Each structure stands twice: as C-alpha cells, then as structure tokens.
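It is worth pausing here to work through a concrete case rather than discussing structure prediction in the abstract. The textbook approach is simple: state the sequence, then state the predicted structure, then interpret. We follow exactly that order.
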Amino acid sequence: MFTEVFSHIHPIMVHFPIAIIFIATIYDLIMAITKRKFSPKKGLWLWVLAFLSAWVAVLTGPDEDARGNTNIFHTHENLAHITTILSLLVLAVRIFFMVKKKDFLRFSLVIYCVVSLICLGGVLATGYYGGKMVYDQGVGVKMSGKYVNPPKQGKFDQGD
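Step two, the predicted structure:
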C-alpha cells in the first residue's frame, strides 16, 4: 500500500501549494485592503507552508513519465520552478521586514501584493498545464497496468 501511495505522491502533493498559496494571497490582500498596512508576522506561516509545499511538489514531479510524449512538460516544469522561487521571495521579504521590525507601508505593500498575485497566477498556471498533461494527453495515466501515453525510449533517456 505504501508503494502505491508513494508512486502517486506528486498528484497528492500538488494540491497543497495550490491551496496554500491561494489562501495566503487572499489573506494578504484582505489585510492590505482593510488595514492598508499589516505586520509581516501575521500570515508568515502560510508563506512558510506555501514555499515548502511548492518545493516538495517540484521535487516529487515524475518527469520520467513525460519523457518525449508531451509538448507542454517544460512549460509546466518552468512555471513550477518560477512559482517556487516567487513563494521563496515573498517569504524572504516577510522575514526581512520581520527582522527589521517594520510593517509594510503603502509602496512596499503594493509591490508585495503584486508579487503575491504573480505567485498565485504561477501556481494556477502550473496546475493548468499539469492538468492538461494528465487529462488531455494521458501523461502518467495507467489503465489495466499499462500507460495510456507511455514515455518514449531512446534519445530522451539521455536527460531530456
């Protein structure tokens, strides 16, 4: 049973960064709109979880399943990396303001919220392309123990 669950760890893990980045961004936007400034301590753990879950989702991605049988894998992978970097950037900014013991002011808050929204867009786009690979192209999908769209062999074994 553990082997079966572990073989599907990426599809399980990808839902966490989608949900947590969404919640963290909405929380920050509500705080920014209602308070016009807010403490970097409030909501910090949401962004810690967002970054960690994005990182785990990237690490568990089974790129060998997509080898040579999809034209959107690299778009999905690049968006995942960008989203993880953006979530780290958002987290780093919060920690910087927390260490400096400063609240976000109007200009820094606007920039921060824009980057958070771009991070949210990144995770949603990553999920969109991941879903397209699975639901439209059958990447990683097995039926009766056989891949619907099996990975290509040969030239793709060398690292692409």
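Step three, interpretation. The first strand starts at residue 142 and ends at 143. Residues 98 and 149 are 48 Å apart (CA to CA).
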